[in-house]
Design goal:
It contains 5 helices and 6 strands, in the order αβββαααββαβ.
């Protein structure tokens, strides 16, 4: 399946946000961190990823087109914060205290680890699992890890292990 190309106006809005947040961070940190490369190749249910060694932000074009303002307001700063934390502190926990500080105190954005976007358009085959309080959908990768005995997943609400239906 070919990855859709986001409209130019949306790409420009994303780049403007990236540059504004980077300038804000450079000013507050007294540094001149370079502008990261921005690509629209993220697939699956991830909104974006920060590739530290490549100093690159990969964004999911499908989710971006469906959630334009939220992407600009939340996802772009989220991924930029990962790169800035890596430049400023080195390798640390991905969503640890340094990342939270970078998000809230430096970039002025609430520090949320995950997005709440509707995933129907990007979700592939999923497998139903159940806990005490609700049904869950596990991806093919997670389902296969459970089947091979390599992983057990728990509900974040009730803490019970997920069981295949």
């Amino acid at each position: 399946m070919k990855t859709p190309r986001p409209p130019l106006a949306l790409q420009l809005a994303v780049m403007r946000c990236l540059r504004e947040k980077l300038a804000q961070a450079n000013l507050k940190l007294g540094r001149t961190y370079p502008e990261p490369k921005l690509v629209y190749r993220q697939r699956g249910t991830s909104a974006g990823t920060a590739w530290l060694d490549a100093y690159e932000i990969r964004l999911n074009p499908v989710l971006m087109m469906e959630n334009q303002q939220a992407f600009i307001d939340e996802v772009v700063p989220h991924e930029l914060a990962h790169l800035l934390v890596w430049k400023h502190f080195g390798r640390v926990a991905p969503h640890g205290k340094e990342w939270k500080w970078m998000m809230e105190d430096v970039l002025g954005v609430p520090a949320r680890r995950t997005h709440q976007f509707e995933l129907e358009s990007v979700r592939r085959n999923t497998f139903p699992y159940r806990c005490q309080c609700q049904q869950h959908q596990l991806t093919v990768r997670r389902h296969n890890r459970v089947v091979r005995g390599e992983a057990t997943y728990r509900c974040v609400k009730c803490g019970e292990p997920l069981v295949a239906e």
